[in-house]
Design goal:
The complex is a heterodimer of chains A (about 325) and B (about 425). Chain A is an alpha/beta fold and about 325 residues long. Chain A has 11 helices and 9 strands. Helices cover about 40% and strands about 15% of the residues of chain A. In chain B, a hairpin with a 2-residue loop joins strand 2 and strand 3 (about 30-35). Classes of the chains: A alpha/beta (about 325), B alpha/beta (about 425). The interface of A and B includes residues 115, 131, 132 and 196 of A.
C-alpha cells in the first residue's frame, strides 16, 4: 500500500506503489468522461499550487485535478512574488505552513528544492518538477498511457529520445520504467547525454535507428530553444535530420509502436508535425488526459495518508 | 619554565614517535629529555600520561568572517575554535568583504587578530585587486605589511597573460603564490562532480578534468616564470600525475588538499545535504583514495582544514543555490585520525602534512619537535572516541559535515609559545 506522506519522486516508490496509483488513476480516467465530474474526495481540503518556474499546462492539470475532487485550490505564481524580495525558500514554506494547507504542489527550477520544502511543512507535498531531478506525475501519466495502449507495463522496449541531460521527465521515466521491468533505451546526441547514465541500468546510444529498433514505445523529449544554436548541437535542422522523429526513423520500431511527447512540442525540431497528429501512432493527447487522472489519484492517496497520520497523531 | 613529561612525542622531521619529556623555556623548546630522566628544571611539570605531543597545526587557508561577515565568524570565535582544534597558526584567506588587497585593510586585519586571538595569525593577501583577476595587488607593500602568501582564494585567474605577469612579478619579490586549480568555464555553476550520481540527482556537475586542465596551465606558467607556487587543493587522481611530473622536473611547486576531500566522497551529498557542498565538489571514492595515498607518500605536501564558516541561512537553500564550504578548525584532527586509524599513514607522516610542511613552505620555525623551535605544541589523545555534535563547536557558524559522526581523537591541551591557550 502506498504509505508515503509526499510524492517527491519515482525513485522512492515500489512496484506496488506504482500499480496502486495507476489502478486508481484508471478509475479516474473513466470517471473524467462523465458529464458531472465533481466529487467530494478532497472536500474541505486546501490545495496550493506553488510554481517557481513557468508552466501553464502542468499547473492547469493540477488545478483541474484538485477542483474535480472538491478541494479549494489556490495558485501562487512565485516568480513574481516573495523570492524577488529576497525571501528564502524556507521562509516561504513556513509562511505558507501557517495558513494550514493540506496539499502543496510545487515546481522549482533547482533539483532537490521540493524535498527541502517538504521537510519544513506539515502538509503533503507533490513534486511538480524540480530542476533536472524528477517530475513524478509526468512519469506516472506516461506509464498509465503506455499501460492502456499496450495492455501491460512490463517487458516492453521503450526508447526515450532527445535532450536527456536537462530532462527531469527522462529521469523519472527511466526510474519508473526500470522498476516495472522494461528495457529502457536512451537515444540522443552525446552532448545531451548526462555523464555516467549508462551505469543506471539503461542502454545508451546516439543512433536513432539503433535506439528505436523493435521499440514498443518511442518517447520524444522537448529540446529547449536556448540549447539549439551551436552550444549543444550545431543547428535545428541537423538535429531534426539526425534525431527528429519522422516516418522513416519510426519504421525501425515495432509496427504498432506508440509515439509519446510530454509537451509542449517543437514541431519540425524533435518531431514531425504530421506524425505528432497521427491518431494511429501518437498518444500525445491521451497523455494530457491521463495527466489529470493520475494527479487525482495521487492527491486522493496523499490525502488518505495525511488523514491517517493526523488521526494517529490525535490518538497518542 | 614548563616541563611536559611522559609524552609520546610525534616528530614529523625524524618520522618517529618516542616517549620523552619536553622542557619549555621563554616560549621555545629548551630541551627534549629521555623518559628515564626524572629530575626536571624548576617550574611547572605536567604529566602527559603517555598521550601524544606534537607540533601545533599550521592551517593554510582559514577563512575568518572579518571584515564583512562577522555574523558568520569573528576573530574571537575563530581563535577559540583554532585553540580547541590544536591549530596554533592560522594562515588566513583574503576572500573577505572587502578583500584583503591593500596594506591598509591588512593592517586593520592584523590589529583585530592581535587583539582577539591567542594563536598565531598569519594573513594571506589577495593576488589581484578585489580578487577581480585583472589588476595585480600591491604585492610589495602587502609583503611589508605582513602578508605571507598571495591568493585570490577560490577564484582562479582566468587570463593566462595576467597570471604570467603576476607570477613574474611575485617571483622577483620572492612572494609565494597560491592558486585555485579549477578551470573556471568548465566549473562555472557546478555543484557536484560529474558521473552517475550527479546525473541521478539532476545537479549541474563538473568533471575532475577541470582541475587537471587548470593545474597544467598554472604549472606551465610556473615553468616559464620560475615562481614559487602552491596549488591549494588537489583532489583527483588525474591531477596527481601532472603534479608528479612538475615536481620531478624540479619546479618550485607544492600542493595541498582539504580534510574533506580526504575523508568524504561524492555520495555523502545524497539527499541534497548542503553541509557537504565544498569547493571543489567532493570526488569519487577512487579519487579520494588516490589523494590519501598521495599525502602518505608525500606527493601532496600539505593538508588544510579549508575552514569556511557559513551561517544556516546560506546553507538551508536548494543545493545549487547554497553556499560552499565547511568549518574545519576543530574537526580537522579527529577527521584526519580516521586516516591514521585506517592504516593509511602514521602520526609523524600526518604531522608532516599539517605542521612541518606548511611551516616550511612559509619559512616559519614552527612545525618541528626540536630544541630551539617555538613551543607551539598540542597534546592529544589519538584514540578518544566521541560523537561529533556541531552545536558544541566554538566557531560561530556550525556548518560541519561530520555532524553526528563517530570520531576518534581529542585535543587535550594547546600551547602557543609555551603558553597554554586551551
Amino acid at each position: 500500500m502506498f504509505t508515503q506522506r509526499h510524492l517527491l519522486g519515482i525513485e522512492s516508490l515500489s512496484q506496488q506503489d506504482i500499480t496502486e496509483i495507476l489502478d486508481l488513476a484508471e478509475h479516474y480516467a473513466q470517471h473524467n468522461l462523465k458529464q458531472n465530474k465533481h466529487l467530494d474526495v478532497l472536500a474541505g481540503l486546501t490545495q496550493i499550487n506553488m510554481f517557481f518556474e513557468n508552466s501553464t499546462r502542468t499547473q492547469a492539470s493540477f488545478e483541474i485535478a484538485g477542483k474535480r475532487l472538491g478541494a479549494d485550490v489556490m495558485n501562487m505564481s512565485m516568480q513574481a512574488s516573495s523570492i524577488k524580495k529576497g525571501e528564502t525558500l524556507i521562509d516561504t514554506a513556513l509562511t505558507l505552513n501557517a495558513m494550514h494547507p493540506d496539499l502543496l504542489v510545487v515546481r522549482h527550477p533547482h533539483s532537490g528544492a521540493v524535498k527541502l520544502l517538504a521537510e519544513k511543512v506539515n502538509c503533503a507535498v507533490m513534486n511538480a518538477g524540480d530542476g533536472r531531478h524528477e517530475h513524478p506525475t509526468q512519469a506516472l501519466l506516461d506509464a498509465l498511457t503506455i499501460r492502456r495502449s499496450k495492455g501491460r507495463l512490463h517487458r516492453l522496449i521503450i526508447a526515450i529520445c532527445g535532450d536527456i541531460a536537462h530532462s527531469r521527465v527522462a529521469r523519472s521515466n527511466m526510474f519508473l520504467l526500470g522498476k516495472m521491468e522494461n528495457r529502457v533505451r536512451l537515444v540522443g546526441p552525446k552532448t545531451l547525454m548526462p555523464a555516467g547514465v549508462d551505469k543506471l541500468g539503461v542502454e545508451v546510444t546516439d543512433n536513432m535507428a539503433e535506439g528505436l529498433k523493435d521499440a514498443d514505445v518511442v518517447m520524444m523529449l522537448r529540446l529547449q530553444k536556448e540549447r539549439m544554436d551551436g552550444a549543444f548541437i550545431p543547428s535545428e535542422r541537423e538535429y531534426y535530420h539526425r534525431w527528429g522523429l519522422d516516418e522513416a526513423k519510426l519504421a525501425n520500431a515495432k509496427p504498432d509502436a506508440i509515439v509519446m511527447h510530454p509537451g509542449p512540442m517543437n514541431r519540425g525540431v524533435e518531431i514531425d508535425g504530421i506524425l505528432a497528429d497521427d491518431i494511429n501512432r501518437s498518444v500525445i493527447q491521451e497523455q494530457v488526459e491521463m495527466g489529470v487522472a493520475v494527479r487525482m489519484a495521487v492527491m486522493e492517496l496523499l490525502a488518505r495518508n495525511l488523514r491517517k497520520s493526523k488521526e494517529e497523531g490525535a490518538s497518542c | 619554565m614548563l616541563t611536559l613529561t611522559n609524552a609520546r612525542i610525534i616528530d614529523p622531521e625524524a618520522g618517529t614517535e618516542k616517549l620523552r619529556s619536553v622542557v619549555i623555556k621563554d616560549g621555545r623548546i629548551d630541551q627534549i629529555l629521555a623518559n628515564e630522566i626524572k629530575t626536571f628544571p624548576a617550574g611547572k611539570v605536567i604529566d602527559c600520561g603517555g598521550k601524544c605531543l606534537a607540533p601545533g597545526i599550521v592551517d593554510i587557508g582559514v577563512k575568518i568572517g572579518e571584515p564583512g561577515e562577522r555574523h558568520k565568524e569573528s576573530f574571537r570565535t575563530a581563535g577559540l575554535a583554532a585553540a580547541a582544534g590544536g591549530v596554533t597558526t592560522m594562515v588566513t584567506r583574503p576572500d573577505t568583504t572587502p578583500a584583503i588587497d591593500t596594506p591598509e585593510i591588512l593592517d586593520f586585519f592584523r590589529r583585530r587578530a592581535a587583539d582577539e586571538v591567542a594563536v598565531n595569525v598569519l594573513p594571506m593577501a589577495a593576488l589581484t585587486k578585489g580578487r577581480g583577476g585583472k589588476e595585480m595587488a600591491e604585492i610589495g607593500f602587502l609583503q611589508d605589511a605582513g602578508a605571507v602568501a598571495f591568493s585570490d582564494a577560490d577564484r582562479p585567474i582566468e587570463n593566462a597573460k595576467t597570471l604570467q605577469r603576476i607570477l613574474t612579478y611575485a617571483n622577483a619579490s620572492g612572494a609565494l603564490v597560491i592558486g585555485h586549480v579549477q578551470e573556471p568555464v568548465l566549473s562555472k555553476g557546478a555543484a557536484v562532480t560529474s558521473g552517475a550520481f550527479a546525473t541521478k540527482q539532476g545537479l549541474p556537475a563538473v568533471s575532475p578534468m577541470a582541475e587537471r586542465i587548470q593545474l597544467e596551465r598554472d604549472l606551465a606558467l610556473v615553468e616559464m616564470t620560475g615562481a614559487k607556487y602552491h596549488a591549494d587543493q588537489i583532489t583527483c587522481a588525474s591531477a596527481l600525475t601532472v603534479l608528479e611530473r612538475a615536481k620531478k622536473a624540479g619546479l618550485n611547486v607544492t600542493a595541498g588538499v582539504s580534510i574533506h576531500h580526504l575523508t568524504l566522497n561524492e555520495f555523502d551529498v545524497e539527499d541534497y545535504r548542503t553541509f557537504f557542498k565544498v569547493k571543489p565538489p567532493l570526488r569519487a571514492e577512487d579519487d579520494r583514495l588516490a589523494v590519501v595515498h598521495a599525502v602518505a607518500n608525500g606527493l601532496i605536501d600539505i593538508i588544510s582544514s579549508m575552514h569556511t564558516p557559513q551561517d544556516e541561512e546560506s546553507k538551508r537553500l536548494p543545493y545549487e543555490e547554497a553556499a560552499s564550504g565547511a568549518v574545519g578548525l576543530q574537526t580537522m584532527l579527529p577527521a584526519l585520525m580516521q586516516l591514521v586509524h585506517g592504516g593509511h599513514m602514521d602520526l609523524p607522516t600526518l604531522f608532516r602534512a599539517i605542521s612541518l610542511n606548511p611551516a616550511k613552505l612559509l619559512g616559519l620555525e614552527a612545525g618541528r619537535m626540536a630544541e630551539g623551535a617555538p613551543a607551539d605544541l598540542i597534546l592529544f589523545d589519538p584514540d578518544a572516541p566521541f560523537v561529533m555534535d556541531r552545536f558544541e563547536l566554538l566557531s560561530k557558524s556550525k556548518n560541519a559535515p561530520f555532524d553526528g559522526r563517530r570520531m576518534q581523537g581529542k585535543v587535550l591541551k594547546t600551547f602557543v609559545a609555551g603558553a597554554q591557550v586551551f
